């Protein structure tokens, strides 16, 4: 993408009400713009990151055997009356009357709607287990939206719903999501910690939150320090095999959310206990027949008798992760994207757009990067070098390829790693070879 | 995808209120399920088609130079008061009060919101022209939703918005979208007819509807019969070059919507006039400064003076197209997907799942198709041959690869073309070669 044809409205200063670094950088880097309180437009740079994260989430859901579908944003209140949650949900639910005075709502979650689809579609245990997910906008009418996309009102979420016959199969479905969540976050460069958690308004009796550590997080984390050193990426996973041992490995060490932590009974020695703040990026629930029973989602079992299915639900905050990743990866100059979620792999800077040699060299580099499947933002604009450097640092692409007239006369360009700050003088061919052959990104 | 792990709830009969063939087939084939009046859940098979169509739309928008972003579904009423449309829009607008009693709405279109983004981001003509698009759910509270996804209330739409300095540049942006629309629909196997149209509630003075012919369509079409033979796919397009000649070629022949057609002044001889019904799948508008002037979206021109930008907007009904394509391509047995939008390239039918030779042959074919980048729905279920054939015909994948025990003993399988009905007995190797090397899909 040529910057001259892109839409990247950089702000010099973030609004004063942007309190945390991810919110400030997302506004300054032209990733989002607030449309109204807690509701954001995703500008092109922000949307690219959102889509990268969405795609990683999708691939790991598919890998774990979940099947994608898409439920609508607007739901009928009737279903929520069946489950008994219509009144319980309180003012966070955005309630709507349509032109025929029917009571509708903007879905904050989808247990009722998916259970309705299930009960009309599946009658036999032979069609189980099943896990259906969708990635869709949700709305929760927060009384005080804050922290940009981290606690917005309209937010993008992956939610999966598993259906199984019996407790053991339901726990296997739960374990599949548990393990896939660790892998999902690891692919984004995040170390997520699973915490035993309360089930809250979703209900049920088994639940884990997935937290990434960040000083600006709103969740308290208490865990054994060794948990921070575990690495999921070295674990090979067979989702049809025994997952309990993997889950046990990750849950044997103490880790609890605020409401589950009691200093008096905590088994961890004080010197081994980490007390920190974190951001909740995922939450999984096993809740048995809490919805299937009142809503009549039953299957006939092997013995011909009807039994309610056992369900779980599994959420990932896709739009929140954009902010969460920035909280975890930035410096004083701006964002530092992990390669897997970067909006472009490479930022190509033409230091003097009016110089013909620079333009020719940049066009060649740009064409070759694209032809090799690398995404590239080519800064072809007529701005000062200082403006270009600051802008490219702010938006945080992993690699900067810098072409200036003086260095180019000696046949060289500069390659900068955004994370380490390391700069090397290098020939264009060697730069391409490093950016393409080494399979960055 | 193995059918045993997919979610494909086939219905024997469609509900009686499904009046048109696309609605009936989408329900029967397990593509969608109604959540409430005019609001649908997209089940896995339907979502695959929706995403294929969305991706074609995206690629052709990108090719024409538009830049993708994403605006939220919920908007503030304040912006619509600035443009004067808040009252005009009537009961089709879903109006919402949030917990703080602020007036909000579920966006039926986005002229106001994009103009708001523009006015805060762009100050100089040097940053023009610009065309921003998004693909997002919209809501129009139709008094009588009908025809399934063709006239739903919550629907998926691509809408683009162009900004230019002066009339000539604005018309060039309009022409870019005009030409890209023809290409977009052609890639889906559709012959779209551009009709001169009224501008309606969007406003402005230049507008074309894009219509595909279908007996069940709600739009009247009057056009010269030769227009039906024009072919966009043979036209190579330079979006930065002169597009007026391409647009002229497509608009020289008479073509008018109902409200623009007057039999008394129609220049086409009766024997050359086609009078037909069609489905509106796209609509483009040039409306100058209708929104930029009241909302203060101005840029400083080359002379330093501030002028309102000239705008256009351009919509494609992404979810409606799913129904529209079925209306245009089906037979008595079910849907006949054009290859470009088919949910899977190949349906692999194992006629006897319990037969070991069949299972081994199918696993091998399935693995090789996937490895070659072909998508495949593998019917590995334990159903009767009749059930399997009927189901595969209903869901309309372009190719069926049929493996049965008797034929397999002679080293052969069957390959069926869904559209022509042609079946050939063929070796598995030759079948793979036809499905892979010939670059179907």
| Alpha-beta classification of chain A | alpha+beta
- The average pLDDT value of chain A, as a whole number, equals 95
Specify the number of helices of chain A.
13
Measured on Cα atoms, how large is the radius of gyration of chain A? 24 Å
The parts of chain A where pLDDT drops under 50 for at least 5 residues are: none
The biggest chain-chain interface is:
A-B, 51 and 51 residues
Helix content of chain A: 25-40%
Number of strands of chain A: 23
What can be said about the biggest beta sheet of chain A?
A: 9 strands, mixed
End-to-end CA span of chain A = 17 Å
Gross morphology of chain A is: globular
Produce a short descriptive summary.
Two copies of one chain form a homodimer. Chain A has helices spanning 21-28, 44-63, 77-83, 85-88, 111-121, 167-187, 244-251, 292-295, 318-328, 356-371, 385-395, 405-409, 428-436, and strands at 32-36, 39-42, 67-68, 74-76, 94-97, 103-106, 130-139, 154-164, 192-196, 206-213, 219-224, 255-257, 273-288, 298-300, 306-308, 310-317, 330-331, 334-335, 346-350, 376-379, 399-403, 413-417, 423-426.
């Amino acid at each position: 993408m040529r910057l001259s044809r892109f839409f990247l409205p950089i702000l010099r200063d973030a609004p004063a009400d942007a309190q945390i670094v991810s919110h400030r950088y997302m506004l300054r880097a032209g990733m989002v713009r607030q449309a109204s309180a807690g509701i954001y437009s995703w500008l092109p740079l922000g949307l690219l990151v959102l889509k990268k994260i969405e795609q990683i989430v999708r691939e790991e859901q598919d890998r774990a055997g979940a099947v994608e579908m898409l439920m609508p944003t607007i739901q009928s209140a009737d279903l929520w009356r069946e489950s008994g949650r219509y009144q319980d949900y309180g003012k966070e639910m955005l309630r709507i009357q349509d032109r025929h005075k029917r009571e509708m709502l903007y879905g904050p979650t989808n247990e009722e709607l998916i259970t309705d689809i299930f009960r009309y579609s599946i009658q036999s245990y032979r069609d189980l287990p099943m896990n259906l997910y969708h990635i869709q906008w949700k709305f929760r009418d927060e009384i005080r939206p804050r922290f940009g996309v981290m606690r917005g009102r309209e937010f993008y979420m992956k939610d999966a719903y598993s259906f199984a016959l019996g407790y053991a199969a339901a726990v296997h479905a739960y374990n599949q999501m548990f393990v896939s969540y660790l892998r999902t976050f690891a692919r984004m460069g995040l170390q997520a910690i699973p915490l035993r958690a309360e089930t809250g308004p979703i209900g049920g009796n088994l639940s884990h939150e997935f937290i990434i550590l960040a000083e600006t997080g709103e969740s308290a984390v208490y865990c054994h320090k060794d948990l921070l050193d575990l690495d999921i990426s070295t674990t090979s996973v067979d989702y049809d095999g025994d997952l309990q041992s993997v889950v046990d490995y990750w849950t044997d060490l103490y880790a609890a959310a605020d409401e589950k932590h009691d200093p008096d009974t905590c088994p961890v020695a004080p010197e081994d206990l980490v007390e920190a703040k974190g951001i909740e990026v995922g939450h999984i629930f096993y809740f048995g027949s809490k919805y299937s029973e009142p809503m009549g989602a039953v299957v006939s079992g092997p013995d011909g008798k009807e039994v309610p299915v056992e369900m779980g639900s599994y959420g990932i905050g896709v739009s929140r992760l954009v902010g969460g990743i920035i909280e975890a990866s930035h410096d004083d100059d701006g964002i530092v994207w992990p390669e897997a979620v970067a909006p472009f792999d490479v930022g190509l800077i033409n230091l003097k757009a009016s110089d013909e040699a620079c333009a020719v060299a940049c066009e060649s580099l740009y064409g070759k990067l694209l032809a090799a499947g690398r995404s590239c933002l080519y800064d072809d604009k007529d701005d000062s070098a200082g403006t270009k450097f600051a802008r490219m640092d702010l938006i945080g692409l992993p690699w900067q390829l810098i072409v200036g007239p003086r260095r180019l006369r000696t046949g060289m360009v500069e390659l900068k790693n955004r994370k380490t700050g390391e700069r090397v003088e290098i020939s264009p061919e060697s730069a391409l070879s490093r950016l393409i052959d080494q399979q960055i990104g």
